[in-house]
Every structure is written in C-alpha cells, then in structure tokens.
C-alpha cells in the first residue's frame, strides 16, 4: 500500500470489527451464564469450560481491539473460532447453521490475515 497511514487505519478498523463479536458474546455469556452452560452441554461441551470461553472471547477480543499481543491472540481466536464452528454449527440440515459455520470460517480467515499482517501503528504492539 502506498499510504501507510491508510493501511494502519484499516488495520485498526478491521481489528475492531473482528473483535466486536467476541467482546459482545463474552459479555452476554456472563449475564446468561446458566443458559449458556445448558447450550454448551447440549452440544456435548462441559459447562465447566464456560469461564475459559468467556475469558477467551472477552479478554481476547479486547486485546485485539487495543492491539496487544495481536499476532498471538489472533492465532488463538482463529483456533477458537474453528473449534466452536465444528462443535456448534455442523448441523447443515439447518440452513442457518451452515451460514453460521461459513461466517465463522470468514472470521477465522480474518484472524489469519491479522496474524500475518500484525496490528499496525495504531496499537500497543506498533508492528
């Protein structure tokens, strides 16, 4: 890109957009704790893992927004997103589940790009 400032602004906006879903999901799991545990159990995932899920989504998402340890967190959220997709969105007999799976693949791809590109100048990382 010929304009580094524009590229760094795009990275900032991209980080915010990628992270927003995770921050909001993590936060909503706190207020809907029991319901989320029941949903996880219905998919065969132990509810005891919910605090870890909340930390990954909420703290990981906020780390992406501010650009702290971006490459590492992007890789972790890439893996988290793939695992969540396989566990919760494989019932493709329901078109919405197929759509959610594909959306998650796109988000995972965004995290891979962020891993490769780094956070940019408007971040704690400054890479």
Automatic annotation (TrEMBL):
Lineage: Bacteria, Pseudomonadati, Pseudomonadota, Alphaproteobacteria, Hyphomicrobiales
Cellular localization per UniProt: Cell membrane
UniProt cross-references to PANTHER family, sorted A to Z: INNER MEMBRANE PROTEIN YPHA-RELATED (PTHR33452:SF1), OXIDOREDUCTASE CATD-RELATED (PTHR33452)
The protein's name: Putative oxidoreductase
Organism (species): Bosea lupini
The keyword Transmembrane helix belongs to this UniProt entry's keyword annotation: yes
Coiled coil regions in record: none
Membrane-spanning parts: 12-30, 42-66, 72-93, 105-124
A Pfam family this chain is assigned to: DoxX
Alphabetical keyword list: Cell membrane, Membrane, Transmembrane, Transmembrane helix
Family membership noted in the UniProt record: Belongs to the DoxX family.
Membrane topology according to the record: Multi-pass membrane protein
GO CC aspect terms: plasma membrane
InterPro entries to which the protein is assigned, alphabetical: DoxX, DoxX-like_oxidoreductase
């Amino acid at each position: 890109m010929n304009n580094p400032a524009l590229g760094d602004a795009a990275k900032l906006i991209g980080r915010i957009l990628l992270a927003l879903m995770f921050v909001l999901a993590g936060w909503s799991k706190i207020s809907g704790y029991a319901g989320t545990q029941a949903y996880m159990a219905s998919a065969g995932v132990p509810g005891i893992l919910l605090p870890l899920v909340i930390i990954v989504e909420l703290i990981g998402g906020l780390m992406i927004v501010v650009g702290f340890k971006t490459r590492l967190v992007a890789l972790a959220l890439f893996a988290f997103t793939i695992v969540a997709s396989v566990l919760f969105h494989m019932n493709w007999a329901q078109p919405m589940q197929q759509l959610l799976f594909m959306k998650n693949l796109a988000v995972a791809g965004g995290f891979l790009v962020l891993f490769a590109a780094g956070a940019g100048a408007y971040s704690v990382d400054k890479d």
